[in-house]
Structures are given as structure tokens and as C-alpha cells.
Amino acid sequence: MSLTTTRSSILVIEGHPDGQSFVGGLARAYAEGARAAGSVVETVRLADLRFDPVLHGGFHGEQPLEPDLVRVHEAILRAGHVAFAFPTWWAAPPALVKGFVDRTFLPGVAFRFEPGASLPTGLFAGRSARLITTMDSPSWWYRLKHGRAVHRSFISATLDFVGFAPVASRTVYKVRELDEAAREAALRRASRDGARDAAALHARGAQRRVWQWKQV
Question: What pLDDT, on a 0 to 100 scale, did the predictor assign at position 204?
């Protein structure tokens, strides 16, 4: 079964445990920008889902997905673009996000190793993605001290691994120092990102339809 989609919808997955967080505001602004640009947008708050975040048997055990995780997986399959919004804590995603990834990005669900192949087939191929994250660190410290740890692990080692491409990112640094004006500016940038990603998704869909028409 091919998981490549021709849909023009966007899925926003928000991974902050606090429903009143600044990250939540960025996710909402991004979704509003995408809707204003003409995309159908679905949103998911991981904190609202009911699931066990622990993959008890690793990749070799049997642990069926809970109904909420099944619904999010189906939403990913419906989408042409998925945006993940969460804070960076200890140079890593929150446990809520890590548990979601551990439980849903599974062999046969998000990737598959073909016989004799050293690299996996990403089963979410055909979808673009975006990472929206915040941190208290300044950009220079995050780059030099932490080696852009979240971007390397979540974009390169996770999203790329399961087939998402291209993957864009927006990082808001030094959040604890931001005044109200700076926060409003960050929200406006998130909205513009949503609009740009929606426009790019629509353009890819138009190109795909032209290609399909030429094959008829």
C-alpha cells in the first residue's frame, strides 16, 4: 500500500503539556495562517490523548495502538504536511512527544526495512513537515554547546528517517527574556510560516496533478 498523498490538508501536532503555553499559541497561529491560505487544517494536542507513552517491549514486542494513537496515525496519512510544535527541554523534546514518537513511529507503520536493504523505506514519504520549537537558550549556545541537538535528532534522525521531506523549522530562542512585543512578533512569524507551507503544499499538489494528467 502506498502512503503517498495528494491531499492538501495540514496536520498540526502540539506537544506541550500545558494548554495555555506559548508553544500552543505558536501552533494556533501557524494553523490560522495555513487556513487563511486555503488549507484544511487538523490539530492534535498530545496532552489530550490517552495512551501509554512507554514502548514496553521495544520494537520486538506486541503493543497495539490505543484508539487515540490510531486516530492520529490516520490523520498523518490524510495530511500532505505535518507541523510538530513543542518546547525544547534539556536539549530534547518533552517526554510527551518522545512517548508519542516511540509508540507511533513503528516498524511497518512509519518505516520498513526491505530484505537486503541497509537503509529503511520511510512510510510517510510524500509529506512535508515543519518543526516549531522554543527554548530559553540563545542560538549561539544551542549551536556550539548542544550541536543543534533537537534539530539533529528530531529532523534528521526521526522525520527524515520515516520519509518526511522537505522539513523546515522555526525556533524561538531566549523565550524567558521575550517581552510582549517580541512574543507577538514570533506569533506573526508562525502565522506567515503556516501560510507559506500551505502555499508550497498547494503548489506541489498542482504539479502532481499536471504530472498525472500527462501520464493519461
Answer: 83
Alpha-carbon torsion, ordered 194, 197, 198, 202, to 10 deg = 180
Q: Which residue has the cell 487538523?
A: 42
The predicted-structure confidence for 44-92, as pLDDT tens digits, reads as follows 999 999 999 999 988 887 889 999 999 999 999 999 999 999 999 999 9
Residue range 177-189: mean pLDDT, rounded? 97
Closest CA to 43 of 24, 59, 62: 24
Q: b/e for 11-37, b at 16 or more Cβ within 10 A? A: bbbbbbeeeebbbbbbbbbbbbbbbeb
Taking the C-alpha atoms of residue 139 and residue 88, their distance in angstroms, rounded to an integer, is 12
Q: Which three cell numbers stand for residue 92?
A: 530534547
Can you give the pTM of this predicted structure? 0.89
Amino acid at position 106, single letter: L
d(CA 30, CA 190) in angstroms, rounded, equals: 5
- The predicted structure's pLDDT at residue 210: 42
Buried b (16+ CB within 10 A) or exposed e, 55-65: eeeeeeeeeee
